[in-house]
């Protein structure tokens, strides 16, 4: 009963937040200043600048599986356009990842010869991992991509090469570091750690990645 009440309360809070922002959106008009928009909607969740305009984005979830994105553009410090997009998320399932054959760990007395590996099993494992990467990329926002990786890392283990390939899905060093912190405890080997380091652009971030992986220069 308590769990039901908590769930209903959470849904109510989400709905109130969404309704509040929607009412605020309805109060906007072209030509408003950034200060006026902030008073109505509050600070944006994301803010982007380019040579011609400044873009603000607000994210609201009317329900657990729906995300509304409001994109507001300013030119010459004045509101010039407003767009909204609704995205419905499909239920996510944690993928089953088959470790790559070249990093399997066997008892000393049972290590098979490479010639005994079944080619079909390798191909199936690779295809399944590619599907996992595609599911990460299909997430709407970077924070959802990271959350998807975190859910998978609770139940699965990854080779260092797989960790590298996951990191390559992210655009910024800060995002890669967040993901590496999640995946490092779930990594089964250290064969490709130097290639993992090379996915980072800046030397300071490479040093931080080394610390996460326990590597000394």
Features:
2 domains, 217 residues, alpha+beta, 16% strand, four-stranded antiparallel sheet
Give the mean pLDDT: 79
Helix/strand/pairing category: alpha+beta
- Alpha plus pi helix count: 8
Enumerate the spans where pLDDT stays under 50 for 5 or more consecutive residues: 1-16, 104-111
Share in β-strands: 15-25%
Radius of gyration: 23 Å
Distance between the termini: 55 Å
How many domains? The number is: 2
Could you give the order of strands across the largest sheet? Answer: 1-2-3-4
Helical fraction: 40-55%
| Quantity of strands, as a count | 4
User: What's the main sheet like?
Assistant: 4 strands, antiparallel
Shape: elongated
Q: Helix and strand string, N-terminal first?
A: HHEEEEHHHHHH
Describe the overall structure.
The chain is α+β, with helices and mostly antiparallel strands and 217 residues long. The chain contains eight helices and four strands. Strand 3 and strand 4 form a beta hairpin. Helix 4 (142-153) runs parallel beside helix 6 and helix 6 (173-183) packs parallel to helix 8. It starts with a helix and ends with a helix.
Quick recap of the structure?
With 217 residues, the chain is α+β, with helices and mostly antiparallel strands.
